[in-house]
Write a structure and sequence with these properties.
- By secondary structure, this protein is of the alpha+beta class.
- The chain has three helices and four strands, in the order βαββαβα.
- It has a two-stranded antiparallel ribbon.
- The two termini are 21 Å apart.
């Protein structure tokens, strides 16, 4: 997982991570991969679609899932 230059440092990914694998430091996302449960919630919630998995080719094109029953 990594964030592209599109990241605005909003921090929703860190606030909503169920295992606290993401922290914000100096406006940048810091990912603790040893804690990550690979739920991909951060990827789905990013308002700028800045979070990518692997090389980003597939995740950049897949779109984001928005559960209509969950508010953020």
């Amino acid at each position: 997982m990594h964030a592209t230059e599109e990241c605005i440092g909003w921090g929703l990914c860190a606030r909503k991570c169920p295992v606290q694998a993401i922290a914000m430091q100096d406006g940048h996302r810091v990912w603790g991969k040893e804690k990550c449960a690979m739920c991909l919630g951060c990827l789905q919630r990013c308002p700028k679609a800045a979070i990518q998995y692997g090389n980003g080719v597939a995740t950049g094109k897949h779109g984001q899932y928005r559960n209509p029953h969950v508010t953020v």
